[in-house]
């Protein structure tokens, strides 16, 4: 159920360095993984069942088989990453330094007990290890629409010490779609001249240092990621500033009693600011500012050990997240806090275990179990008093015990074929924004129009996956059929014409994933991927039985030619019509589309690599995905779909020493 994908924004296929389970044709060198920029911007390139939702100019909200947001566990070296915006304008993958990332491992379905919240799967970011010797990696790229990207990673190490530093800078102008329309046309109230300004600008700096003893390694890490701004045309606000600070210390045992022991302490802090007037024309009495602060502190510990041919892992996790969110109206009464969400403190304590048990030479069994205690409390009595003063009976606390487990059996059918059956179940905690978010009826008014849902139940996914895989000298094939039962799924519904809220529903999902690679000869490889999934609610919330977020049938056919010093690829990606939508949450029907891209790279000399290409060669006008963004605070945002960029030319120069 796992896929590992290298990081690359222009890698629109498996062709450039995606580490996958397709054996025999895997390219793992990240230095050759395409035009890299922004964390996981095209993670979807490795698998048609994985999408990156575009709510701004940079796609950064991952979905797996249609599930996303809180239904996925997004982690970096095991630590949960969270944004500070309840509207997810700063999703977890945006809080990363791309130059530090070695690979991203994705899991489909409830088969990762190492993380709480992996109800629909998740993504685990792996950083580059402590350097051993001298290393330097530099990538500089330019593209259409004034996009500029720079990544530099440098390190020095020996048998005892190691140190590395990484810096990145990413920016882009406002892109145009296949019809030549600027992205900002999606909102009518942007200020004059906004199309000539930057769509986003972001920079990051990191440092890592470590000590190697004979039996263990210790490291310390510091990351700082700053987003100067990002425009969100389909939302009522734009991001005006986000500052992320991440500190971590880790210990890894290598020999003797310490072998297999890992401990990591971390703290991730995010300061996020939005408003509706810096880049937009807004009347003085309607100017709105919003600020979110999220601080997560935690410790991870795990121990791996073997007994004969059996392998085991035991782990524990503890974390505390303090999340403060406030919204301010600048009306005739002056600046005031209207209490967008109760300030909360979430404490998680979890234990898990994984066992790999060979049954016989051609059959293996894997078992995983996890249990968590999750407690959410009000961390600001003033907020509660304000709400209670408005005559609302509001209990800002919850305490849940969550359980998850899975069983996976791998059966070797022959030297070339194997069959995998997996059955799993997992819960996630109700998120504070789902339980306690509020919406004012207007500037300066009380009580709140949406009072939140403190009594929501924790959702659960129970899923069955059946996979058939083939490996031979020239052909690799992977196919998976899945069926999922969603119980108490947290879903957005309408309260009235102006307000929305969340409720628990039951639903089912089913789908099919396919990936294949065929080597025609020593130089030419053909690759194909396709995915289809369908979701149905058991009752008709919002007047529809269609489950929001389900992509239509989508796939790609790519041809790669590889010579001694250069590569070239022709890529065709396509999608069927998206007609099974839930209009009650703002989804709209989308047309089918086809996109053609050309890519090439040339190894100039040792360590030097030049890449260039054309994406969307035919200038197709299309939207990849319904960017469904549950947000009761802004139920009447101007739209939910952003078109993909039109014809885009890019070039990038890579150096690696």
Task: Describe this entry's structure for a reader.
With 657 residues, the chain is an all-beta fold. Helices cover 2% and strands 54% of the residues. It contains 2 helices and 33 strands. The chain has a 22-stranded antiparallel β-barrel. It has a 5-stranded mixed β-sheet with strand order 1-7-8-5-6, with no helix packed on it. Strands 2-3-4 form a 3-stranded antiparallel β-sheet, with no helix packed on it. Strand 25 and strand 26 (475-494) form a beta hairpin. The chain is globular. The two termini are 34 Å apart. Residues 1-42, 382-393 and 440-450 have low confidence and may be disordered.
Keywords:
657 residues; mainly beta; five-stranded mixed β-sheet; globular
Termini separation: 34 Å
Q: Which structural class do you get from the secondary structure elements?
A: mainly beta
List the uncertain runs: 1-42, 382-393, 440-450
Largest sheet: 22 strands, antiparallel, barrel
Range of strand content? over 45%
Instruction: Using the CA coordinates, give the radius of gyration.
Output: 24 Å
Spatial shape: globular
Total number of β-strand segments? 33
H/I helix tally: 2
Mean pLDDT: 84
Helix content: under 10%
